[in-house]
Amino acid sequence: MSGTYLGMPxxxxxxxAAVGDRTLRGNLxxxxxxxxxxxxxxxxxxxxxxxxxxxxxxxxxxxxRHLDRYLVQLxxxxxxxxxxxxxxxxxxEANRIVARLVKETGESEVVKVKSMATQEIGLNEAxxxxxxxxxxxxxxxxxxxxxxxxxxxxxxxxxxxxxxxxRDIFRREMGEWGRAAPEGLTDTPAELAEAARLHLRxxxxxxxxxxxxxNFMVAETGTLVVVESEGxxxxxxxxxxxxxxxxxxxxxxxxxxxxxVFLQTLPRxxxxxxxxxxxxxxxxxxxxxxxxxxxxxxxxxxxxxTLADEVGRQALRCIRCSACLNVCPVYERAGGHAYGSVxxxxxxxxxxxxxxxxxxEIDASLPYASSLCGACYEVCPVAIDIPExxxxxxxxxxxxxxxxxxxxxxxxxxxxxxxAERAAMRAARWAxxxxxxxxxGQRLAxxxxxxxxxxxxxxxxxxxxxxxxxxxxxxxxxxxxQRTNGGKDGAx
Length: 492
Description:
Elements: H1 11-19, H2 22-44, H3 49-65, H4 67-80, E1 84-88, H5 91-105, E2 109-112, H6 116-120, H7 123-129, E3 133-136, H8 139-146, H9 163-177, H10 189-206, E4 209-212, E5 216-218, E6 223-228, H11 232-238, E7 242-248, E8 252-253, H12 256-270, E9 278-283, E10 293-299, H13 303-307, H14 323-327, H15 329-334, H16 345-356, H17 361-365, H18 375-379, H19 386-400, E11 403-406, E12 409-412, H20 419-432, H21 435-447, H22 461-464, H23 477-484
Parallel strand pairs: 1-10, 2-3, 2-4, 4-7, 5-8, 7-10
Antiparallel strand pairs: 5-6, 6-9, 11-12
Helix pairs in contact: 2-12, 3-12, 9-10, 16-19
């Protein structure tokens, strides 16, 4: 399996294949149910969780509303602390900047902290094309990389793999990437973790360049923050001589006091811990401690356009906790690969189509990858109303198409395809605007109900193939009301 998402089919087709994989469904069911139960217990310990959730929402909304000001403040703070800030409008520019910075060091390999932003822009593949090897050091990301695979979960990228599969990957691939797996390696967690530790240790001690993302950036001090559970991040952030951090512009928060809220909500929502085992912060460079050179690449890549959408912009509040994935009945059955994006699950269904646009088949299908049950909204620690954004994006796909920038304006482009659905909506609008026509249609539908098919023909077959068509009543509601109320209007 390739490490890229380019050319993947639309969600319904990809999900259909995933649902037929019993091993995958078993792995997902076990993992998501375990994580969600632990999260619920951890959240229940906090008496003011609702207040923390609202505080996180307000901090994020305030920051996004004044993002231009806080980004300038962040750049000034990072520069004053000895770092260098680079601005990247898109993935291509970000990859070009990172590749140039690595080449300037004279090195040909880097170690990486787990980073959604670098996966989003395809940094590993871009560096490989420039002759630079990027080594993932997060355990799950290591499994994915060694297996030539794609991440399937925000927090647990290898959630679709069981211990036996991981053992086989380590035995088969580790020797090609560095230190080989120990002889007689079993599938016990302790042995797998030790094999990864030995394999990665030589990478940490040899690498001169580290690449990271960041969970948060504090504008007032220029401090970056990474939270993780294994210690690999701490190694990548302190041992290399050069550190390059690629971070989405929405990750900024105004002050240290604001950071306090998220350091309470993120661990409980993601790993069900009261605090992360490793919370690493760094501010520029310091003589004799950590990297000698620090570069911050601030990534837009569709975020500014997303910010222009009053409904969709709330997706930029996301702190990448993955709580929504662990409660989603669709994700549990389809898995992360079906979403065709580094951001799977409910948050991916609203974030990816906004960052990438809805021109492609996969992105146009993602807003429909949901039952709209609302479980994702209930667990979101920053109160993103994912169902609201899903419905909003469905409207965009059907009626308006993608939001794009033309010069200094953000405009809604006409959508491609979905002609039958648009025609049906126009017909319904015409009928609902004409009571007489609606009444006639209802009576005709009731009198011919015995002739109605059980499945729809043509394009409608895709809808009725997985649903029962609603039964048409023997009598329209209007006729029943007039008959039971003697023709009078109003309630009985």
